[in-house]
Amino acid sequence: MLTNFSLRSRIFISMIFWVVIAFILIASVTVYQYSEQNRDYHADRMERKEEQIKQSIDLALQKTTFPVTTENLGLIFRDEIYEIALVQNINFNIYDLQGQLIKSSRPKFEIDSISTCLDAEVLNNLASSRNKRYVEQKSAAGYSYQASYTYIDDKRFKHVGILNLPYFEDNSFNDKELKEILLRLTGAYLLLMLLAIGLAYFISKYITRSLQTISDRLNQTDLTKRNEKIIVENPSEEIGKLITSYNEMIDELEISAAKLAKGEREQAWREMAKQVAHEIKNPLTPMRLSVQSFERKFDPNDPDITKKVSEFSKTLIQQIDTMSSIASAFSNFANMPAQQNETLNVVKIVKMAVDIFDENYIHFSSDEEEIIAKLDRTQLIRVVTNLVKNATQAIVNVEAPNVLVTVSKEGDFVKMTVEDNGVGISMESKDKVFEPKFTTKTSGMGLGLGMVKNIVETYKGTINFTTEPGKGTIFTVRFPIANAGANM
């Protein structure tokens, strides 16, 4: 259950829990101790009363003029029993050896409530007991009491009767005292509880302070930047080991990040070099073949030599232009766009970029007439044209092609979407869309979307897309809106 709480909460709750448990245990032990004490007190008191009554009975038997027999007990204690009961302040009964009531110190109107004949179980237990004494628990009128049974002996220690002493326990004083003690104990523990709550709060805060520092620093750990080490004054041994491990990990991460960054840069340049070499080889091959063919077929005396030279030149110029466009594309991709503090009406610029395309299936829509942002005009146009160009290439084989460009305001951002109903992007290609040199087309270098992403992120914007194969794709670009009061 406590696993859902923080460490600080668990420490706090645990301390309070043990204080409550301690109070319950002490209260239980106190009640048990009083109960045992009361039981021992009443047992001792009953034995003393019984012994005092027996001494009075023995004294009465010594003074009597009647023969000490079971039959004469009623005569011997006819008046004496009341005096003994008055002196000892307790009533008692005398039975014969068969359990028949002979005499009781109780008034006559109470004798009816006294058993006139003892149970055989009482007689057997009394006879079989080692100290010739038997105590049983009884109840009368809703009250429980103890009844002791012991033999009355003559001068020769011969049993002549049975003494029965009903003993009612009066626990009112002890119960009152117990309640007072429990009240005092409760008050003391309430004070202790308040102290424990305060102590638990500060102890849990102190214990978890270092852990919270470590937790915050772990949450801030970023592999893409330099991370600060944790410094805690006078940490405990366990926290110190954890801090040392974290700081060592940070050192190792920095070394690994540096090696990784270097390796990634080298790998990126190798991949870029391979891509450039591959793209340049494509036009070089037909150029080489054209030169070889022209060399074999060159005849200065050919009447059409001028026409053939012209065609040969056009072929070479076409391939050279292709190589130039390749170089320009890689140059544009490599050069990160610098931020320009040019305040633009994005709606106007995007519409102008869309109007460059003559296709009638390309549409522009915006509910706003003006949305101001600080962007570079040229870079924004490059973003729009690249996305629209991609959309047009995705709907080549669609019967009713449609490309919709929209601009709207979304909170503190200007939102631009380019939607097409083309072939969509497959699941395998989704994660590679913005990678340089990735393309699904048979021509091109796959640098367009990578360049768009670089431009958008340079201006602290975002770009993402949703797609459904066979139904189309929606690219969404968001740029921060300029501060209020900006002018075009």
TrEMBL record:
Lineage of source species: Bacteria, Pseudomonadati, Bacteroidota, Flavobacteriia, Flavobacteriales
Pfam families: HATPase_c, HisKA
Alphabetic keyword roster: ATP-binding, Cell membrane, Kinase, Membrane, Nucleotide-binding, Phosphoprotein, Transferase, Transmembrane, Transmembrane helix
Protein's UniProt keywords contain Coiled coil: no
Organism: Arenibacter echinorum
Enzyme class: transferase
Domain Histidine kinase: start-end pairs: 275-483
Residue ranges crossing the lipid bilayer per the database entry: 12-32, 181-203
Main location: membrane
Listed name of the protein: histidine kinase
EC number(s) recorded for this UniProt protein: 2.7.13.3
GO MF terms held by the record: ATP binding; phosphorelay sensor kinase activity
